[in-house]
Design brief:
- The structure is a single chain.
- The strands form three sheets. The chain has a nine-stranded mixed beta sheet, sandwiched between helices.
- By secondary structure, the protein is α/β, with parallel strands linked by helices.
- The chain folds into two domains: 14-257, Zn peptidases (Aminopeptidase), CATH 3.40.630.10; 260-330, RNA polymerase II/Efflux pump adaptor protein, barrel-sandwich hybrid domain (OB fold (Dihydrolipoamide Acetyltransferase, E2P), Beta Barrel).
- Helix 1 links the parallel strand 3 and strand 4 (85-91).
- 50% of the residues are buried.
- Helix 4 (169-181) packs across helix 6.
- It is built from six helices and 18 strands.
- Bound molecules: zinc ion (ZN).
């Protein structure tokens, strides 16, 4: 669908059934896939009175990122179909098993991080079936896609967006939309963040010709209202930029561009004592924390592998061997 801003209005999104112009509709959608019949997922559509693009906004790929979830819920109750040009499709929680069980990072059914197995597999595990259905039945029908995240239950973070660094028109559009969204930092990454079976939501979108990006705000398992405000405003900026609303929103400074994302792990299991905070700049070689044993011995000093900015930080001190401590955004 590259470059094809929806030609028909209302759009045809088969899994949702008929959409009525000028209305907000609530759908309970059972995703295709043998494992996914467990629970229908709430989806709200705002089909504008006027034609325009299809914007898909989702959250809850990770189950404990509450400001992102709340943002999608709030958009569903606040956007006015009479004022919207085009169609906004909203799914507040993809990974419902993780949401209900408050599981961090993974889906508790298969212990898989869904954002590492996109575009999924219709015959795979629960997370693979889920990301496959999500990609085909939602993302593929959109002209643009925003995947809202935040720090998960043990993570504090500074708000940032992530898009793919690439040379296609879709990559350029994704970066443009992520810039418009207005968070203080934008990571344009060219390689996977972690070795994984698959890739992330925005990469699967790009491969379908749909410009997509991740926007992250809030964390530590709480519902910070300022984070919700940031994310809601970001989506509204994108709506205005795409000509889907006439709202005028004050400009913000262009994001600081980061080109690398370096994740730092502990070698040893133990208690983590960070020596830095989120949004702090660190220098390669700097001691940024320690890990101690349960006897109180110092097991290791954590050294910054690169210079960069602390974008997220694990704030719960219990750390397993090879446990994730923080992510550094790098300017190259
Ligand atoms: Zn997440």
């Amino acid at each position: 669908m590259e470059g094809s801003m929806a030609t028909t209005h209302p759009p045809t999104i088969p899994i949702l059934g008929p959409l009525q112009p000028g209305t907000t509709q609530r759908h309970l959608v059972t995703l295709p896939g043998a494992a996914l019949a467990d629970e229908a997922r709430p989806v709200t559509t705002i089909t504008g009175a006027k034609p325009g693009p299809v914007l898909f906004v989702g959250a809850g790929v990770h189950g404990g990122e509450y400001p992102a979830v709340e943002t999608v819920i709030r958009l569903g109750t606040s956007l006015d179909a009479a004022e919207v040009a085009g169609t906004v499709v909203l799914m507040p929680v993809l990974n419902l098993p993780a949401f209900w069980q408050r599981s961090m990072f993974v889906c508790p059914v298969d212990n898989v991080n869904p954002n590492r197995v996109f575009p999924g597999d219709p015959n795979g595990t629960y997370s693979e079936q889920m990301t496959h259905a999500f990609t085909n039945d939602f993302i593929a029908h959109a002209d643009a896609y925003i995947d809202l995240h935040g720090g998960d239950i043990p993570e504090a973070l500074v708000p940032f967006s992530i898009c793919r660094a690439g040379t296609t028109a879709t990559d350029a559009k994704a970066k443009e939309l992520a810039t418009v969204f207005g968070l203080p930092y934008l990571l344009a990454v060219s390689r996977p963040i972690q070795p994984a079976k698959g890739s992330s939501s925005y990469v699967a979108a790009a491969e379908r010709g749909v410009p997509g990006f991740i926007a992250e705000a809030g964390g530590v398992g709480q519902l910070q209202q300022d984070a919700v405000e940031l994310l809601v405003t970001g989506v509204r900026r994108v709506l205005a930029h795409l000509g889907m609303s006439e709202e005028k929103i004050a400009d913000v400074p262009a994001p600081i561009l980061l080109t690398g994302f370096e994740w730092v792990y502990a070698k040893n299991a133990g208690i983590f004592y960070p020596a830095v905070g989120v949004d702090e700049v660190v220098h390669a070689g700097q001691a940024i924390g320690k890990v101690g044993s349960l006897f109180g011995e110092m097991l290791e000093t954590i050294i910054a592998p690169v210079s960069g900015r602390v974008l997220f930080l694990t704030i719960n001190p219990a750390i397993q061997a090879n446990g994730l401590l923080m992510g550094l955004g790098v300017t190259e």
